[in-house]
Amino acid sequence: MAWSPVIALYVTICCLAFVMSKVVISFLLYKRWKRTRTIIEDSPSGGKVVVFRSPATQSLSSKAFMKKTMKLSNKNIIGSGGYGTVYRLSVDDNTAFAVKRLNKGNKDTERGFERELDAMGDIKHRNIVSLYGYYIAPQFNLLIYELMPHGSLDTLLHGKSREQKPLDWATRCRIAVGAARGISYLHHDCIPHIIHRDIKSSNILLDQNMEARVSDFGLATLMDPHQTHVSTIVAGTFGYLAPEYFDTGRATTKGDVYSFGVVLLELLTGKRPTDESFIEEGTKLVTWVKDVVKEKKEEHAVDSALGSFPIKEVKKVFRIAEECLESDPSKRPTMTRVVKMLEQINSIVN
Ligand SMILES: Nc1ncnc2c1ncn2[C@@H]1O[C@H](COP(=O)(O)OP(=O)(O)OP(=O)(O)O)[C@@H](O)[C@H]1O
Predict the structure, then answer these.
(1) Residue ranges of the Protein kinase domain (predicted)?
(2) What is the model's pLDDT at position 227?
């Protein structure tokens, strides 16, 4: 059946309007995307700096960042991990950032790497360490993060410094619920949903108000597994990995829930999952705690540095940890549920 010229004209106009609207929308989205970032190509090094615009990065021009970065030395190091070294980068007396220098990833994955970083820059939550920008160059990559003045939960719980005061019960509870809210946000509120894959006490950092912030989200997927240290099997860290991960190698939100359960045990007992005493006794933190809870002797497992603590609340947190550590992933609660359960602990205000 032949179309009348009028219908053919209508169809042509509709198709053109459709294509034009797509082009205009893409252009506007690109303009908006550009407005939220400062991008500088550094021709001598072949590198590129991208700074996500926000009130916190107003003082950080890409040029200033490049200059300061080139001057970073060993005395600026604040930590190091499987993915690289972390430096303190001070812009002025009041402004500083944490800069992570990454061991170089795979060249083929560079485009995907940039896309992932751009997406990570859009994630903002009071319990997540913000990514402020990045630098990509042929020799190395840098990630610019918000600086967390109180360092990591791992150092606060297990650090050797004698001046350091042990964390009290109320602070531990606040850290637990803050970290849980951060993970829950990644799992349930981000689109697409994000599985962290490496929840552990050294990836829970503390801001100026001792509020917990989850860091390193997305890094486990970004980095080539062969570039990371020996304790990382595909992704994740020994002692925190859910048992099913060893069989399937698949990261899931329930795997993060398990790792968070291990962090809860660390907060309760003050012991690392890889504590030497467990190896000597042929057990591990999770098994030891399960036995203690079964015998209703939780008070014997509590961190001796804790001083006084409300035993009823301690028992409740042990029970929440136990649920997170169920061997069957389907029996573990979601992180939203974990947040709700923790919020019922009296020492947790707001
Ligand atoms: N944004 C930050 N602010 C302050 N200190 C930080 C920041 N990021 C990392 N650190 C410090 O640097 C240390 C090393 O961090 P990094 O994330 O590189 O390794 P990790 O978490 O210890 O181990 P892994 O690389 O296996 O995850 C942290 O334990 C923390 O003390």
Answers:
(1) 72-349
(2) 41
Instruction: Please give the positions annotated as active site.
Output: 198
Tokens encoding 289: 């705690």
pLDDT, mean over the chain:
84
Closest CA to 306 of 314, 316, 294: 314
Length of the chain: 350
Strands 47-52 and 131-136, bridge-based pairing: antiparallel
Ligand 1 pocket, residue 155 CB under 6 Å:
yes
The pLDDT score that the predictor gives to residue 297 is 87
Say how many C-beta atoms besides its own lie within 10 A of residue 77's C-beta. Answer: 13
- 133-164: string of b/e by CB count within 10 Å (b at 16+)? bbbbeeeebbbbbbbbebebbbbbbeeeeeee
Give φ, ψ of 298 to 5 degrees.
-55, -35
Which of 182-191, 230-239, 271-280 is predicted with the least confidence, judged by mean pLDDT?
230-239
Measured distance CA(204)–CA(267) in Å, rounded = 12
Rounded (10°) angle between helices 285-294 and 311-324: 130
Residue 238 Cα, ligand 1 centroid: separation in angstroms?
17
Beta bridge partners of 80: 85
Closest C-alpha to ligand 1, atom 11: 79
Distance 152 CA to ligand 1 centre (A): 7
| Predicted complex ipTM | 0.95
pLDDT of 62-105, one tens digit each? 667 777 777 888 999 998 887 789 999 988 777 889 999 987 65
Structural domains of the chain ordered from first start: 37-146 (3.30.200.20), 153-349 (1.10.510.10)
Residue 290, marked binder: no
